[in-house]
Amino acid sequence: MRGEITEWLTQVEYDIDTAQAMFDAGRYIYCIYMCHLAVEKALKAMVIKRTEETPPKTHNLIYLLKLCEAKLTESQI
Questions:
Q1: Measured between alpha carbons, how far is 20 from 45 in angstroms, rounded to an integer?
Q2: How many C-beta neighbours within 10 Å does residue 43 have?
Q3: Can you give the pLDDT at residue 1?
Q4: Scanning 32, 42, 48, 54, which has its CA 20 to 30 A from the CA of 69?
Q5: Residue 63 neighbours by CB distance under 10 Å
Q6: pTM of the full predicted structure?
Q7: Which of 46, 35, 33, 41 is nearest to 8 (CA)?
Q8: Rg of the Cα atoms in the chain
């Protein structure tokens, strides 16, 4: 795995831990924000895996999902 992928996934774990802390503290807006960041970073790792290029600077999850060509189940969609 390329170093960039590992770094993105390390940040995903940190963001999920932060989201849990925000949830436990009742800071739900920040919990949602951290979850969005975690999903975004995971998708960017997937974009690197598929394209072997640096992912675009965007926060658009749908766009990133299309770039990484992830296969989702009906319930995930």
A1: 22
A2: 24
A3: 59
A4: 32
A5: 12
A6: 0.89
A7: 41
A8: 13
